Amino acid sequence: MADFRLLFEPFSNGKLNLRNRIVMAPMTRYASADGIPTKEVADYYRRRAEGEVGLVITEGVGIDRRSASRDPSVPNFFGRRALENWRKVVAAVHSCGAEIAPQLWHVGASPPKDPDWDEPVRESPSGIFGEGIERGQAMDEAAIAGTIEAYASAAEETKRMGCGAVELHGAHGYLIDQFFWEVTNRRNDPYGGSSIAERSRFAVETVKAIRSRVGENFPIIFRLSQWKIPDYAAKNAQTPQELEQWLAPLADAGVDIFHCSQRRFWEPEFEGSPLNLAGWAKKVTGCPTITVGSVGLSEAFLDPDARPEIATAPLDDLLARLEREEFDLVAIGRALISDPQWARKVKAGQTNLLIPYNAADLQRLY
Ligand code: FNR
């Protein structure tokens, strides 16, 4: 059995203080009718905090009426009623000793699920998209300024509410990532360009606006990915040098922690080095990073003798990487859907009691 103690050492970067290294990954649950998080939503997050997660990152939350309009059951982070109920979620999580960071989300040109929901919704950075991505309405400068303002005021609200941090969703092919990616960003104004540094301008301006509103000491986490929902093989950065050109300006603008989304944490990011995306992001920025991707999903995690050839090695590998400080925090997604007590059980060495992830559990909010 691997020694999981490293996962339970406290974390601090001077701004964010966590009781351990385990982060609940952001997961959309479609349970907030009309964008208002319910008591069930508060209980759902409370259970994971009771289960000894260190930091809860919420599901993506809409920053304004145009942003999360893919589905009206995605929670808003604006409007009196939604914010009032978010305050209850924050109190519930804090009462169990965990910290919370709302994930600010703008879907950009993703197709909406509900055609009645406040059209026009498909704002894109460019209006020009790759095959299979729905065409959107290009953002003009006024729309860009308005969207940056919506991010900044939502971030300010997270601070006012007493959250431990705010996370910006810059991953997976949504709005911010649509600017990063050369396939979707075909702008020929200062928000586009042939280099990732040029295409990062929108994100950099957004981070700067947030930083100026929340002050120096409030932690900003930035979630990024190479993969996109329409293209798992995509890469914004082909080389470590491009990764640095992409992330260093974001760190300069005020990002404190990079949350590096991979589908499998053990996959090397660039040829010639075993470092994963979180490892590289830390190396090129010097900032703490969060890794994620299939931690705790394997059968071998539940029974180390069952299929050691598949997953025992990656879990040992996770701990070895943590020990080498290649990254600082470990996010858990699906395993926490099925077992809210995941962290507590791992800490107590009760991995034999873990409830395995079952996709059917996505249908209920437990
Ligand atoms: C996700 N993921 C995700 N990511 C994100 O940045 N914002 C989000 O709102 C969501 N929503 C979401 C919903 C559901 C149902 C799943 C399963 C996933 C991705 C998630 O945060 C995480 O990166 C992946 O699930 C990989 O981690 P695991 O599940 O392998 O531990």
Backbone structural class: alpha/beta
The average pLDDT is 89
Determine the CATH superfamily: Aldolase class I
Give a short account of the largest sheet: 8 strands, parallel, barrel
Describe this structure in words.
With 366 residues, this protein is an alpha/beta fold. The chain has a single domain (4-333), classed as TIM Barrel (Alpha-Beta Barrel), CATH 3.20.20.70. Helices cover 34% and strands 13% of the residues. The strands form three sheets. The chain has an eight-stranded parallel barrel with strand order 3-4-5-8-9-10-11-12, surrounded by five helices. It has a two-stranded antiparallel sheet with strand order 1-2. Helix 1 packs parallel to helix 2 (80-95), helix 3 runs parallel beside helix 6 and helix 7 (240-253) packs across helix 8. It is globular and about 55 Å long. The relative contact order is 0.13. The structure holds ligand FNR. The site of ligand FNR has 22 residues, from strand 4 and helix 11.
Topology:
Blueprint: E1 11-12, E2 17-18, E3 22-24, H1 39-50, E4 55-62, H2 80-95, E5 99-105, E6 123-124, E7 137-138, H3 141-160, E8 166-169, H4 175-180, H5 196-199, H6 201-214, E9 220-225, H7 240-253, E10 257-261, H8 277-285, E11 289-292, H9 299-302, H10 308-323, E12 329-332, H11 334-338, H12 342-347
Parallel strand pairs: 3-4, 3-12, 4-5, 5-8, 6-7, 8-9, 9-10, 10-11, 11-12
Antiparallel strand pairs: 1-2
Helix pairs in contact: 1-2, 3-6, 7-8
This protein binds ligand FNR.
Ligand FNR is lined by residues 25-28, 59-60, 103, 169, 171-172, 223, 261, 292-295, 297, 332-335, 362.
